[in-house]
Amino acid sequence: MKISTIQLEVIKFIAVGIFCATVEFMTFNLFNAIFKIHYLVSNVLSLVISIGLNYLLSVKFIFNSKRNSNLSTTLLFVGFSIAAILLNQIILWILYQCFGIDIQLSKICAIGLVAAFNFITRKIIIFKS
Asked: Which of 11, 14, 115, 124 has the most neighbouring CB atoms within 10 Å?
């Protein structure tokens, strides 16, 4: 059975996403639990690290795009990353503050929900072939 280009991109996106989500979750816990930085500040710091890593890996390994290294692609990536950070912050705040869900579980849920947004914006808008 031959794997289509989109299937291969999804597989690579998931692998990179799991790696970056792990980095994000670990750095979030490092900042929040170890360094005692407020959870929303810890969230932004961990997201910036994860997004930067994800951008490098997306350009290098996932999306085979002619637009993968120019200024417009970078600006689109930054713009949608800011939207993803805001979405992540809102989800984390709602789950933790409003519903009282454990901060780590809230973070995992936020990562999962924002992953779909990230794939769609990166595939359809940022790294379109």
From this structure: 115
